């Protein structure tokens, strides 16, 4: 494992609480997608999760989902529901867990992805990104690649935002297959 991969895996130590605002889709917003660069290793804990749960890590042929008011409403429902259903807990390990009652940002992201796939959102349009909050804390979020741009579902807030408006410094992202990652430009 290279130093960057180790740093990514080791960076998930502290996590905050959820906010309360909801976001509505604005069709006049320009589409902005996260730009990726070199391939990099998936976080170690996610690699372990995918070994035992490959069906939760695979992609689909659809890499962008068409934005609509219905999709935005679904994203808001799932984001808020998962944010309320998981009690925040700092983990000293890199465990990624589905169905957790308590967990950290990795668990929120994984659970949101699973719920959206179950509701019919193509897995190929759902990515997990890791990086740092504005306070420098390691963090993971779910990114939904839409025709209106990449939107972030975050356990720190119920507000869904375009990726460039989160205040986070994202450094790596999965593609639709959670086992395949790239650095972020």
TrEMBL record:
It comes from the Bacteria. Gene3D superfamilies: 3.10.620.30. InterPro entries: Transglutaminase-like_Cys_pept. PANTHER family: BLR5470 PROTEIN (PTHR39327:SF1), PTHR39327. This is Transglutaminase-like cysteine proteinase. It comes from Pelagibacterium lentulum. The lineage of its organism: Bacteria, Pseudomonadati, Pseudomonadota, Alphaproteobacteria, Hyphomicrobiales.
């Amino acid at each position: 494992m290279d130093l960057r991969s180790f740093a990514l895996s080791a960076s998930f130590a502290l996590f905050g609480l959820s906010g309360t605002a909801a976001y509505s889709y604005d069709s006049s917003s320009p589409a902005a997608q996260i730009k990726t660069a070199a391939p990099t290793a998936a976080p170690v804990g996610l690699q372990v999760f995918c070994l035992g749960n490959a069906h939760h890590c695979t992609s689909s042929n659809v890499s962008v989902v068409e934005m609509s008011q219905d999709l935005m409403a679904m994203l808001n429902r799932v984001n808020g529901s998962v944010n309320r259903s998981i009690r925040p807990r700092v983990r000293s390990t890199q465990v990624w867990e589905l169905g957790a009652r308590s967990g950290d940002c990795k668990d929120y992201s994984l659970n949101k992805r699973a719920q959206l796939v179950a509701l019919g959102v193509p897995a190929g349009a759902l990515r997990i990104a890791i990086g740092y909050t504005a306070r420098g804390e390691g963090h993971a979020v779910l990114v939904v690649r839409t025709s209106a741009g990449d939107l972030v579902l975050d356990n720190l807030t119920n507000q869904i935002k375009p990726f460039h408006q989160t205040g986070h410094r994202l450094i790596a992202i999965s593609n639709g297959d959670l086992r395949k990652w790239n650095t972020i430009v």
